[in-house]
Amino acid sequence: MTPGGREHRRRQPVGFNMTPMIDVVFLLICFFMLVSQFASAEHVAMDLPLPDDSQAVKVKLSDRVVINCVLTSPHTPATSGVAYSIGPLRVVSLEDLSNRLAASKAANPNLQVVLRADRRLPYRAVRDVMDVIAENSIELMHLVAHVGEGTQG
Length: 153
Fold this sequence. Notes:
The model has no long low-confidence stretch (mean pLDDT about 75). This protein has a domain at about 60-145: Nucleotidyltransferase, domain 5 (2-Layer Sandwich). It has 3 helices and 5 strands. The protein has helices spanning about 20-40, 95-105, 125-135; strands spanning about 65-70, 80-85, 90, 110-115, 140-145. It is of the alpha/beta class. A hairpin with a 2-residue loop joins strand 2 and strand 3.
C-alpha cells in the first residue's frame, strides 16, 4: 500500500497483436493472385478476321446531333410551351434550330440527328422539329423512346 492508503497497481505494457493484420494481408495476396490469373485467362491472343465488305460503321461523336424537346408548361396550348435544345445548348426558336442544323450539316454532310421528346408533348411539336430536320436534308434521324413497363404494345 502507498502512504495515502491506495493500492498501487503495476502498469502492464500495452501490446499490439499483429495476427489479424497478417491474416488480412495474406487473404489480400491470395485474392489478387487469383484475380490476376482469371484476368489473364480472359485475354486470349488471336488473329481477328478483317472483312472485305463490312457493314459496321463507327459513328463519330461529331457526326451526331441530339435535339431535345421539353415541355416547359403543361397548361399552355399547342407548341408555345415547348423548349428546344441541341445537346445542352438552348435553342430560341425553330428557325434558330434550322440555322444551327444547316451549319452543322454544312460542316459534316453525314450528319445524323437523335430526336428526344417529352412524352407529354403534343405530336405537332415533335412533327415541327421533324420538318426542320427534313428541310435541312438530313437523311438519318433516330427517335428515342422508352420501352418498358407501362407501355402498350
